[in-house]
Amino acid sequence: MTAVEIIEASPHFSPGEIPGLEKMDPEFIKRFVQWREWHGMPTMVTSAFRNSPTSAHGKGLAIDCILFMPGKYRVETLSAERLWRITELWGWRGAGIYFDWNLQYRNGQTAKAVGVHVDMSPDPHRRPLRWFRADRSYYYQNVIDGYFYAKSGVKYTLDQAISFFNS
């Protein structure tokens, strides 16, 4: 099946919801749909394929999205902690959390939203990878000590980051 056919068969998405769907890897899309069925949360895709040949997005192997509480699509997002746990449990090769997104909610107001990046990049030099972004700075997790480090050397545990950036 093609990526478009997989999405057309899903009760959770329509092809127009996923930018560049026709260029996405079908196996990745199949896994993404399975993840959506497993976690059961309404999901808004904010980015999928984009012209960046060296990134997982450019290879059709990544999606950025926002998850919402059941029955509260574009009304109430998941907490950062719950979003991270759902993402981690599925075993994506790349996973990142965005603390610096804004979303226009159904009431018309724009407010902070926490988003997530998931990917299946096979690049052994760059995956597995865990990270978060806050205030337009990326923090990458060190597999030895578990801390997330910025290029400046600043470090956070995930709990510290959630507490600090998600307030």
Task: Furnish the topology, listing elements before pairings.
Blueprint lengths: L2 H7 L16 H14 L3 E5 L14 E6 L12 H11 L3 E11 L5 E10 L9 E6 L2 E5 L6 E2 L5 E2 L1 H8 L2
Parallel strand pairs: 3-5
Antiparallel strand pairs: 1-2, 2-4, 3-4, 5-6, 6-7, 7-8
Notes on the protein architecture:
α1 packs parallel to α2 (26-39). 33% of the residues are buried. The termini are far apart. The protein has one domain: Muramoyl-pentapeptide Carboxypeptidase, domain 2, CATH 3.30.1380. With 167 residues, the protein is of the alpha+beta class. The protein is built from 4 helices and 8 strands. An 8-stranded mixed beta sheet has the order 1-2-4-3-5-6-7-8.
Features:
167 residues; alpha+beta; Muramoyl-pentapeptide Carboxypeptidase, domain 2; 8-stranded mixed sheet; 24% helix
Distance between the termini: 43 Å
Q: How can the largest sheet be summarized?
A: 8 strands, mixed
Task: Give the helix proportion (percent range).
Answer: 10-25%
The strand count comes to 8
Strand order of the largest sheet: 1-2-4-3-5-6-7-8
The tally of domains stands at: 1
What global shape is seen?
Answer: globular
N-to-C order of helices and strands: HHEEHEEEEEEH
Give the C-alpha Rg.
Answer: 16 Å
Q: Taking all residues together, what is the mean pLDDT?
A: 91
Approximately how much beta-strand content do the residues carry? 25-35%
The CATH architecture name reads 2-Layer Sandwich
